[in-house]
Amino acid sequence: MRNFLRDRGYTPYPWGQGFNFGPRDGVLDACRAQLMQVADKHRERVSLIGWSLGGLYARELAKEQPDHARCVITLGTPFAGHPRATNAWRLYEMVSGQRVQDEQLIANLRKPPACPTTSIYSKTDGVVAWQCSINDEAPSHREHRGPRQPHRHGNEPAGALRGG
Predict the structure, then answer these.
(1) Which among 119, 110, 34 is positioned nearest to 69, based on CA atoms?
(2) Which pTM was predicted?
(3) Nearest-angstrom CA–CA distance, 124 and 132
(4) How far apart are CA 82 and CA 106, in angstroms?
(5) Hey, how many other C-beta atoms are within 10 angstroms of the C-beta on 71?
(6) In angstroms, how far is the first alpha carbon of the chain from the final one?
(7) Over its length of 164 residues, how does the chain's per-residue pLDDT go in tens digits?
(8) Number of DSSP helices (H) and strands (E) in the chain, helices first
């Protein structure tokens, strides 16, 4: 994905934290720091792209740092609905050591960031139910796309990107 974006004039940044085992200690702090560093380096707001759980990170970062976020693009990200509506919740609980039963956290994840968002999902994903990738309310700066299966391609966790 980074090569694709680079070829189109963007400056992609990997998340640089290895395999995504969930929001363990230091993960979200490192994401916050990277977003601020990239925005400061390029002196402009940053486009955030995240796949699956990385998309949740991207959305939350955009909510926490709206002055640094230009837009959020998610691929196969379950931000709406209950986490158990996905086929990955057991794996998430196993690798992260966290439970998906926090109703306040679930309610917060459903809230969209203030910046424009695009959700790319598939109705035949097999991992994330497509209904979990659509905002309940879709103002004009939100869009939903349903192409091929986001969970079956070589995607990476959340990365920060600068528009070219």
Answers:
(1) 34
(2) 0.80
(3) 13
(4) 7
(5) 19
(6) 15
(7) 899 999 999 999 998 888 888 888 888 999 999 999 999 999 999 999 999 889 999 999 999 999 999 999 999 998 988 778 888 788 778 777 777 777 887 888 889 999 999 999 988 888 888 888 988 765 555 555 565 545 544 443 344 444 33
(8) 5, 6
d(CA 84, CA 48): 25
* CB-count burial class (<10 Å; 0-12, 13-18, 19+) for 54: buried
β-pair type (69-75, 159-162): unpaired
- The residue with tokens 């974006």 is 5
Question: Which of the 8 DSSP states describes residue 34?
Answer: H
Other CB atoms closer than 10 Å to residue 98's CB: what's the count? Answer: 15
